[in-house]
Amino acid sequence: MLIVILLVAIGFIVLSTSKWKLHPFLALLIAAYGIAFSVGMKYAEIAKTITTGFGGILAYIGIVIVLGTIIGVVLEKSGAAVQMANVVLKVVGKRRPVLAMSIIGYIVSIPVFCDSGFVILNALKRSLVKQLKVSGVAMSVALATGLFATHTLVPPTPGPIAAAGNLMVGNLGFVIVVGLFISMFTMLAGYFWAMKQGKRYSSGEDLDVDLEKDVDVMAKYGELPSAFKSFAPIFIPVLLMAMESIVKLSFKASSDMLWYKVFVFLGNPANALFVGVLFASLLLPKWNEETLSGWVGEGIKSSGEILIITGAGGALGAVLKASGIGDYLGASLQTLSLGIFVPFIIAAALKTAQGSSTTALVVTSTIMYPLLASLGLDSEMGKVLTVMAIGAGALTVSHANDSFFWVVSRFSQMDVPTSYKAYTMATLVQGLVTISIVAIMSVIFL
């Protein structure tokens, strides 16, 4: 009966968000109340469990989500994202423009939502298609899959942060390092697929690219910021969190030393992202109301929806833990020896059904937390690989119910059948490759 209750709850979340278009916040909250009543929780405990779960997850990860989103908005509006793209083009070279597009997407989507990243970089992509006479389909799919790779696997993108928070991962820097490594394979899978499909299909970009329009879009930023200023808001926080992980693992005996405490302080995710915001402030063209209030305010507004969905996911997770469903389901799944594939299957089902990768990451991590011990995934590495497995599922697949699918299709001038064959299938390949890498790592490290 416990499993039936959980399946009904998951079915309700999928149907209500995909078919009935109910907001995920309400869907998760209704599911939490439904499970609580169904398993016979004491009425006095229901509200307390839900509010504690909601507040607990936001206390853990809320500030990090807001700061990461602010950085993304500043990178977008200041032209720093375009500058990063130019730097990658110089390094990779115009002889390999499709690979350059993949790498550009991989980097830009670490702090910037993939939808925004594609819109920002579309002008650059179109110009290269025109100048270098390269396949528009190959360039579009490479950019989209590069963006998608880090969007679901690497903090400080909100989805992976929320998943790590729901699973109570102790070291976010470790998630970033592992995510960057695994997502390289994800990106390369998208790149090779893009190269293959670029030879088979064409888009409107291959027939007519309005270069003047692209130049106007590029010119709106004026003088682009320097490479250091552009990359610093992303890589300094990542470096600080990575250094904290290294220091904690390698220099435990020096824990009383001042330098040790400084690294641990700066590597805390909230502190590291705040340092990132300080570096992002160097990108502001002027320190005035438009930037200090307007741009920052836009970042705060953008993070609001992610925060309430994440909080609702925390509420559902608290109810699942208190109900005992997690323990029973974990024991049942353990006999099937599915292990690390369980979070992948759940996330892939949710992503395919309702379209949002972030919702798939939040809901699946909520469901998985009570199952970690039963599946042998309750170690720190087990939790990190679970985040990666959920991210792999959240890649699988992007189609018509995903807003990013339409961004890629419309901005790339690909018709819907071509978009399915070239882009949607690319996300399936990416998901399968990613979970394969995660499975191999689980055999080695768990």
UniProtKB/TrEMBL annotation:
One of the record's GO cellular component terms: plasma membrane
InterPro entries cross-referenced by the UniProt entry: Glcn_transporter
Pfam families: GntP_permease
Keyword flag Metal-binding: no
Transmembrane feature ranges: 26-44, 56-75, 103-124, 136-154, 174-194, 263-285, 331-350, 357-375, 387-408, 420-445
Keywords: Membrane, Transmembrane, Transmembrane helix
Molecular function terms from GO: gluconate transmembrane transporter activity
Protein name listed in UniProt: H+/gluconate symporter family protein
Source organism per UniProt: Sulfurospirillum barnesii (strain ATCC 700032 / DSM 10660 / SES-3)
